[in-house]
Give the backbone structure.
Amino acid sequence: MTTPQPATAATRPHPAFSALVGLTSLGVLLQGLWAGLFMGTDDGSTWVSVHQHGGEVTVVLALLATVAAVVLVRHRRAVVIATAVLFLALVVEYFLGYFAEDARGNLVVHVPLAMLLMGLAVYLPVLARRG
């Protein structure tokens, strides 16, 4: 069994990239919290609004993280691709949620995709730290 090696300067992602991915991951986590505060209630319009605006901020953070990945960690192709996938999945998630009131069937995809996003948001920093 091999022991994990500590991160070196060559394997550590750029601090700006790490910060943006961390903030994006926090946004994904908070989205789940805010959704839980209004799902199953009769009038959760305040939390729906918070959830919507939080989604907008999270998408922007993911876009910035993707740009940072392309610029700062472009030598780590898997990290760049995973960051771009996170951004694209968040865009799809945003629009599914935005149009959820018009088509309730969107929630059938919106909620499971949110779970996938949570997993990706946790996995991306781990992938970025690997050498």
